[in-house]
Structure formats: structure tokens, C-alpha cells
Amino acid sequence: MNIEQLIQTAAVEAVTKLYGEVNPALVQIQKTRKEFSGDYTLVVFPLLKTSRKAPEATAVEIGEALKADCPMVTEYNVIKGFLNISLNPTFWGERFDDICADKSFGVAADSGKTVMIEYSSPNTNKPLHLGHIRNNLLGYSVAQILKAAGHNVIKVNLVNDRGIHICKSMIAWQQYGQGETPESSGMKGDHLVGKYYVEFDKHYKEQIKQLVAEGMSEDEAKKQAPIMRGAQEMLRKWEAKDAEVIALWEKMNGWVYEGFDVTYKALGVDFDKVYYESQTYLLGKSIVDEGLAKGVFFRKEDNSVWIDLTADGLDQKLLLRGDGTSVYMTQDLGTAFRRWEDNSLDEMIYVVGNEQNYHFEVLKLVLKKLGYDWSDNIYHLSYGMVELPEGKMKSREGTVVDADDLVAEMIGTARDMSAELGKLDGLTPEEQDQITAMIGLGALKYFILKVDPRKTMLFDPRESIDFNGNTGPFIQYTHARIKSVLRKAAEAGIDYSAAEQVELLAEEVELIKTLTEYPSIVASAAQNFAPSIVGAYVYELCKTFNSYYHDHSILREENASVRNFRLRLAEQVAGVVAKGMGLMGINVPDRM
């Protein structure tokens, strides 16, 4: 039972004793706002029908009853219809002992619930970019948070390894590549294939321009451009299992996978399972056939298959092209079905940008109409785009911020700024490499994850690497500072493991209060799929500790009992900081 529940139970007993039986749902407890005195606040207004008294009178009577009958309540004050309750410092000391004794503090009991979360979902026609970074970091962090909330989590990647976009890179390489390979070019495989995706767009535009100059309309020119027709023919051959096309597809995808693996390792993300659209699109086609047989779908004159969702406030949605080739929706139907059949899921979360909101609305509705009731347990974790000061990114024009380049830039900037501030002094070259990588990636991850996922965000690399303010490096430095204090204590032979209770300062109570909130923060972040909730909490914890550390000596404290308690408190703060940052996929250094 958390503290809010303890107080609510006591308040329900007090209200029942004063006024008679009450619905516990009317007894609302919340944290006291910082500008008021108190730890927790009881909202009195819902109880006025029961008390039949004015708000202030009701609050005073409940406050007196709590003070008389509940040992943990020492003081109260009333602000209009709000009863602010202060708890006994001894109570907080006992809560601190509970935290110290709980080796799995912040990790909930097994919920028995299995959740699958899909993130990354790259196309094999280009390398990962800044937008993919937000997707990967968000997906991985939400997975870690859901695990801490007690769920069995399956992290999956769906690789978009087939379709017209893949054929665009393939046809461009075939026509203009002259046999270039990652080995001959010195390029990562995903970068090399992405180069030919850009090449396709360049030649496509040139061909359209030429056809328009010859008198063709622009719309017709887009359809008749030779390179586009070549890509479409290649897709038809691929679906017909043409040996030459399949061999080219396997070779170029192989280059991309090797490149992706390097990027995933650098970002510190991983997957439990990888699904490939090339392995699920046929199942999707069979589901479309099933929908046709049931009359859920219909076929148009050009042989294409559609579903009419106008009665549901949407529009008609294409499920299969006239030439029999599939679309994204086809393969998403197959993939969703396969996952539920194979894994006995309770919930499936798709981490996909908000430009796909409509797609997932349609996917859920189509599955529902096909009779798959588990579609109610599909959730689209929609996130906003990442923009740069220069504007939006476009893959086909080669104007994206490459993920590998960005990671390297972040680590380089972290090294420069750390050296400038003297934070690498006395470290070996190996330690410098390890810590600057930790700082650079920590800055990147925290800057992206501290923003509400639903919001579009502006990414500024240099702003993210700042040792002051709401940044990853500030939090990492706080952790390293605490670890330095604990090392010095160990070197001095100080054993604080069994530190006894001492009279708590107000600042120490505030730190303990903040620590006790960690499990509920994890639960809230899991419920809302929001790492930003964890980030805000860890930042506030670090701010509170730094203020305390500034005003109160730890190692130089003359009273041994007080010193040992403070060391133990600092140790618990460092532990929760490391846990919280770990939920965001961020490592924290022990020295810095």
C-alpha cells in the first residue's frame, strides 16, 4: 500500500467516524502543492453532502480526527476546501528504512500480462535517421518501463523489407551502381543502399521533366517515367519469385541489416523478435481473401480490393492493388494476426509517428470487422516528428540527419565540452572514451525522451549537452558526484550500512518523500507510455539532492550518526537515479 492509500484509509475511517459511512472514492488524496505547507492534501468538497457543513469546518473536523487517531499525522492546515496534512518525521524515517531494505524497489510484482511493443520498423532502402532515433529510444524506454511495472514485455522490430520503395533502390543500383558494394565503396551497407534511393529520385525527376518537355502531362509522366516503370515491374517479379530479382533483393537487404545492427548497438537498443514484411504479406493476402468471402471487402473493376468505411466516418481503403500486389495495410493485417496467434498477447503497442494515425485507426477497424476482437487491445503510441532549426527532413532528397553521424557528433561534442570543463582530468584514455560515449548518448536520449511523446520537438544537439539545467549530463554528473562521496567514505573506512535513525532535517524529509514516489512514477509512466514522466522525476530528484548537498556537509559532518545517515541517503538517491535513467536506456557514470 503506497502512502496516498495509507492516508486515504485513515481519512475514510475519520470521515466515517464523524459523519457516517462514506464512499471511499469521494476521499481524494493528492500531494500538497509546493507553495503550501504540508505533505498530502485531502480535497474536502466531495464530502460536503456527507458532512452537511461548510468546507472549512469540515476540513478542521477531519484534521482534528486524523491528528487524534492517526499517529503518522502531526499537523494540518486548511486552505478553503483543502486540508493539508503534515506527517511525522519518524514516519518518513521508517519509509526510508523500507526503501533501503527493498532490493527491488521500484519494480512491481508480476502482473501476469504479456505486452508486445513494436518499434524501429525501418525500411531497407535507407539508413536510420533522427526520426528513427526518437522511435527507437521511445520504444525501448517504454519497454523497460513496462517491465518495471510488472509486465512480460516482448520487444519486436518489423522490417519493411519489400515493396515499391525497396525496388526503387534496387533498380537505381542495377542501372547506375556499376557493381558498387560496401567493401568497394567503404560505406556502411545501409548508407550505400540509401545513396541509390536518392539516385532513384534524382533520375525519376529528370525523366519526368523530359517527358513533360515532350508534351506529356505531369501526372502521366510520373506514371510513364522508365525508372518508375522498371521499379514497378521489379516488384511484380519479386512477388512472382523471379530468381534474379530475389537474389538482388537478398544481397542489398543483407548490406542494410549489417548496417542497422551497428546503429542499434550504438544506440543501446535491442529486440526479442524480428518480423519481416516479406514473410507476412502473403498471410495478409489470405486475410483479404477471407474478408472478400465474408463480404467485408469488395473488388473494383480494375481488380483492386477495398473496404468501405464511410459509414464509420472514414473513407474507402485500398487493401490489394489491381495487379495483385499488396499495400502496407495488407501486410499489417498479416503481421498483427501472426503476432496474436503466436504469443497469446494481452496488448500490442505500435510505436509509429503521428503521420500514421489514420492508418492505425483503419487497421483496428478492419480487424474488428473481420471478427478479431483482440483488435480492441491494439494501441498506437503516436509520437510527433523531430525537427531541426533548418526544417523538416526528406529521405528521398538526402536531407536527413543520419543516425550514425548524429551519434558520432554527440560523442565528439561531449568529449570537447567535458575536456573544456575539466571533467576528464585524471582519467585514462579508455575511461575518457567510455565516459564521453555515455555523456553524448545520455544527452541525446534524455533530450529526446524528456519531451511528451505526442509533441513535435525541435532537436538542438549542443543544447542537449549542458551540465546545467534539465539535461542528461546534469543528471549523470549528480550521480557521479554522489559516487565520488561514497568512494571517499569507503577509502576512509566508514561503514554506513547500518546507519541508525536520526532527527531528520526538512530537506532530508523532502528527499525521502521524493524517493517514496518512485514506484508510483514508474506506474504512471507505464500507464501513459511516457518516459518523460520518469525524466521529469529524476531531474527533480537531482535538483533536490544538489540543493541539499550544497547546504549540508556529508563527509565533514562531525556527528557520526548523522554523517552515516546522510551517506546512506545519498546512496539511495544515486540508486534511484540510476534506475530511473536505466528505464530511459541511459547509463550513468560512477566518475566524471
Total count of strands = 14
Number of distinct helices: 22
* Main sheet record: 5 strands, parallel
Chain-averaged pLDDT: 93
Which residues form runs of ≥5 with pLDDT under 50? 392-398
Q: How far from one another are the termini?
A: 38 Å
User: Class of the largest domain, according to the CATH hierarchy?
Assistant: Alpha Beta
Tally of discrete structural domains: 3
Q: Give the DSSP E fraction (strand runs of 2 or more residues).
A: 5-15%
The CATH topology of the largest domain corresponds to Rossmann fold
CATH superfamily membership of the largest domain: HUPs
List its traits.
about 600 residues, 5-stranded parallel β-sheet, 3 domains, alpha/beta, Rossmann fold, 22 helices, about 10% strand, Gyrase A, domain 2, Isoleucyl-tRNA Synthetase, Domain 1
Write the layout of secondary structure elements.
Blueprint (H helix, E strand, L loop, with lengths): L2 H17 L8 E4 L8 E4 L4 H4 L3 H15 L3 E7 L2 E6 L1 H13 L12 E5 L11 H19 L3 E8 L4 H13 L5 H4 L3 H25 L4 H7 L1 H14 L3 H25 L5 E4 H18 L3 E2 L5 E4 L7 E5 L7 H16 L3 E7 L3 H13 L8 E6 L2 E2 L15 H18 L8 H21 L7 E2 L2 H4 L7 H20 L14 H11 L1 H11 L2 H21 L8 H24 L9
Parallel strand pairs: 5-6, 5-11, 6-7, 11-12, 13-14
Antiparallel strand pairs: 1-2, 2-4, 3-4, 8-9, 9-10
Helix pairs in contact: 1-3, 4-19, 5-20, 6-8, 6-10, 8-9, 8-11, 12-13, 15-16, 18-21, 18-22, 19-21, 19-22, 20-21, 21-22
Protein architecture, described:
This protein has 3 domains: about 5-85, 2-Layer Sandwich (Gyrase A, domain 2), CATH 3.30.1360; about 120-385, Rossmann fold, CATH 3.40.50; about 405-585, Isoleucyl-tRNA Synthetase, Domain 1. The protein is about 55% helix and about 10% strand. It is built from 22 helices and 14 strands. The chain has helices at about 5-20, 50, 55-70, 90-100, 130-150, 165-175, 180-185, 190-215, 220-225, 225-240, 245-265, 275-295, 330-345, 355-370, 405-420, 430-450, 460-465, 470-490, 505-515, 520-530, 530-550, 560-585; strands at about 30, 40-45, 75-80, 80-85, 115-120, 150-160, 275, 300, 305-310, 315-320, 345-355, 380-385, 385, 455-460. A hairpin with a 5-residue loop joins strand 8 (about 300) and strand 9.
